[in-house]
Amino acid sequence: MIDREELSEREREAVEELLFRLADDEFVIAERYTEWQIYAPTIESDLALANIAQDEFGHARLWYDCLADLGYAEAEYLWERPSTDFRHATLCELAFAEGDWADAVVRSYLYDTAERLRLEALVDSSYVPIRDRVGKVIAEESYHREHASNWLDRLASESEGRERVQNATGRLFPHALTLFEPGDHEETIVESGFRTDSLDDLRTEWLETVVPYLESIGIEVPGPESVERPDAVGRDGSHTDDWDDLHESFTATYHELGFAEPTRLRGEP
Amino acid sequence: MSGGSGFARDGSVGVEEEAFSKEPTPCAYTEYREGDTHAELPNTGEGSEGVESRVWEALYGVEDPEMPVSVVDLGLIYDVAVEEGEETHVTVTMTLTYTGCPARRMLTEEIREAAASVDGVDSAEIRLVWSPEWSIDLVTDRGRESLREFGLSV
Fold first, then answer.
1. Interface predicted TM-score (ipTM) of this complex, two decimals
2. Nearest Cβ partner of A132 from B12, B29, B105?
3. Which helix (H) or strand (E) holds A262?
4. Angle value at C-alpha A106, between A21 and A109, nearest 5 degrees
5. Helix (H, G, I), strand (E, B) or coil at B73
6. What is the pLDDT of residues A131-155, one digit of tens each?
7. What are the residue boundaries of the structural domains of chain A, listed by start?
8. What is the pTM of this model?
9. In terms of CATH, what superfamily is A4-257?
10. Strand boundaries in A203-250, DSSP class E
11. Residues of B in contact with A57 (CB under 8 A)
12. Domains in chain B, start-ordered, CATH in brackets?
């Protein structure tokens, strides 16, 4: 068990990498989900996706809090961080195919399945602050997968929906694989027990879950080895053009108002 | 510190049993201290005295923003620790029911202010923890009654 003040320099860098990946994934996918507010196909699904976004923002907050404890100010880890320093997978940042609910559903399914595996590999993390938060996060995740797979079943049960799911899967799958792209400190992350499974193991487990399931609802999944690796994979700071737009839009208000202290509310000391 | 009850250094309760095992692992960078094994949750400050008891009383006055129930009866407050020296400093260890709580800032600030406003307290801070996880089991009997009256089935 390692607490904050006991980290060596190398371990600290590894923990930061792990935390930025976690926080950025959650924050950015939540930003995207919010675009469905008032546009989702039913009022229930509108509320559900808004709620899922709220959960993911909450989780991003918990992980960013850990970075704050390591000395980062909110402006540094979020509002004023250069867009190329973000470490989320490109799956989280892609703009939705216009008006394509299947995109949101497939994306959520691919992401949340990976998210569960990753969080489970953090339950026994040697890093105390992660270990102390992960249980709460896991407890709030299960209905995300339930929501996504209920919708997948529903969409795939008739031909137009199935075609949409098929197209979304083809488009998103290569980007979903970037969830498992290692960063510079992957070895230390595993060796020090900050995460108890390697990204390779998580990728294998993820494929063993999502491929049979998608096939069972009549969706063809590209062979992971034949998939062309996207030019941008996110984890190394390379991103798609969609990310530039999103980054600009979520920081616009911050810059516009010239906040020095972005989260302070009126009347707060 | 007085009023601490079994917290590991990281603020967790109960789960860090290793830290309190009979033979703690010696680590040069870690300050070990004894806890009372497990904190009893929900904690309501019952039996506390002096400044600590007045802080609990003040916290009873803070209500959840959505339901007419005190944050103490809701089981959000895990510990009140009073540090008495030249200045008296209070640390309130607490959780929230939900990580995405939009009232996080408002509620933690209200609680901090309530603690800081107590007679004899110079300053107060909040330690927000997520372990142990809050659950409905942490709501006190009185809290349940208030929630039922409000129309929730608990």
1. 0.85
2. B12
3. none
4. 55
5. coil
6. 999 999 999 998 999 999 999 999 9
7. 4-257
8. 0.86
9. Ferritin, core subunit, four-helix bundle (1.20.1260.10)
10. none
11. 100
12. 41-150 (3.30.300.130)
